[in-house]
Structures are given as structure tokens and as C-alpha cells.
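Handoff note, outgoing to incoming analyst
You'll be picking up this chain. Sequence as last confirmed:
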Amino acid sequence: MLKTRKTELHLGLQKPVRVLHLTDIHLSLADNADGDSMKRHARGRRAVFQGETNADDEAKLPGLLREAMEYGRQFDATVITGDVLDFVTHGNLAAAQEVLAPYDYLFCAGNHEFTPRVGLPDRFSNRAAFYDRVQAAFRGDMTFESRVVGGVNLITMENGLYVWYPGQLEKLKREVARGYPCVIFCHVPLTSPELNHTPEHAGLEADEETIAMTRRLTRYLDETSQIQAVFAGHEHRNLTLALPSGKPCYVLGALFDGTVGEIVID
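Most recent structure output, in case you need it:
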């Protein structure tokens, strides 16, 4: 049973646009190609998301993702903000590709899309190693993509490893220049201390140039009036946050718990 979180944005559109937001399903599968150790790891992770008594049910999370995507057919767009995978295995990539193949959607990567095994630290080197394999399992460009639907520009931007990436700011400025009101979808909420690289999170991998770029893009998202709102995941709970300008950042709970976001933009 899906649980819906409803959000309304009033932008003065001629006709309402309905968007289904999904995030954090955390598929936890491994097959013979991944080996026995990863199969045990996958079962342990399923116990986290499904409970110990249901940990042997390998179909539950893929089935929930399929149910949500099927529900999305009645919307004008479906957007997924990362952590479809809990870790990178042949089993998870195959399941994600199989479930999502029949559907149209926008997608940006989360941090778990590049995790070789849960419990290991997030690393840019893991992202580099797995990027092509992960990208091949999903539609579109998981680092940056945009789509104008009914007069509003829906933009997905990867920030799962607590940074923005080269080229994203330039692409975003080009989208803003098109003149449509913009709504941003990303994995990590823009108010996150990690994304803002506060002193208590100085141990993250990012170098000073990347940190400066990340802060610059985050400020641009907050200060550009044409960007109306931000939607994110990562926290596994529903939150409504405010950026320094007062712009809303809506954080959606996890799909593994059955939560989906219904957004009406009018």
C-alpha cells in the first residue's frame, strides 16, 4: 500500500501539472554473478528495509518500485531522486533495469548508486569506477537532465556525494535562461551540513575547488528567483525545510517504506 505526501506549488500555470516524486527504494539484491558474500550482505540489508521475517523475500522491493512506477502513469511526469540501488551488484542493476524499462521518468543518482558495499565510506573513486555501469541501467543523464512539462521546467541534478559537479552550473543557467519557472530535484537536501561542507564535515573527500563550486551552485539555487522549489530525498522521512532565502526544500520519505510524493504545480 502506497502512502502519499501531497505538495502544492502555485506558479500561475494555465493548467495544473502533476508530478510523482519517488526516492530511496534501496534495492538489495545479489545473484550468482555477485557471489555468496554479497548474497549474505544483500539479505542483511533486506532485513533492514523489510524486517527480519521478510528478509528472504527478494521480490518485495522490486515489486514496490514497480507498483509506484505503475501508479506514476497517471501523472504528467515521474521523477526519482536516487538510491534506487542500495549497493552496486549485478543483481541490483539487473532488477532496476528490468523494473524501470517500461516507464518514462527523470532520474538523478544518490550516494548508494555508487556504494560497493554498505558500511564502506562514500568515495569519488567508487563513482568513477561504477558510473558507466550504473548509468546504463537508467534512462537519461543521471547527473543533469531537464524537461519542460506544461510550462514548468523539471530539472534533476546529482549531488549524492555531497558535491555538485563540473558543468552543472552552466547547464542550469542555460535552463534558467529559457524563461520557464524551474523546480529542482536532487538527492541530498540543500540544507544538509554535508552538502554545505561545514567544519564538522571537513573529513569529506572534496578538495577546496570542489567545495567552493558546490557552495557557489547552492547559493545560485537559493538566490535565483526563477527557481521556485527544491525536492530531495536521502533522509528517509518527510520534511519541509527552508533555504536562507525562504525558498522551500521538500524532503520526501523513503519508497522502501511505501512513501511517494504527489506534487501539483498550478
